[in-house]
Write a structure and sequence with these properties.
By secondary structure, the chain is mainly α. Helices cover 60% and strands 0% of the residues. The radius of gyration is 11 Å and the shape is globular.
Length: 67
């Protein structure tokens, strides 16, 4: 987890073809508040955008409309 937190930007390229950051993935796939909190406390930038131009903040809004 430490490596994941320390290299948030680099992993965005390695994770998938959507250029999602670990924070994007934690929100979209894991939906784990604990992991999201750890990423944010470790400096993950919620304004970082994926390949579609969607920030993590926008992703939260998209996901909350599903419920």
């Amino acid at each position: 987890m430490k490596k994941l937190l320390d290299s948030n930007r680099l992993l965005a390229i390695e994770l998938n073809d959507k250029l999602e950051t670990p924070l994007h993935v934690a929100l979209r796939l894991l939906r784990s508040p604990l992991i999201v909190r750890q990423l944010l406390e470790s400096g993950a930038d919620p304004s970082t955008r994926d390949i579609r131009g969607v920030s993590c903040l926008q992703l939260v809004q998209e996901l909350s409309s599903d419920y």
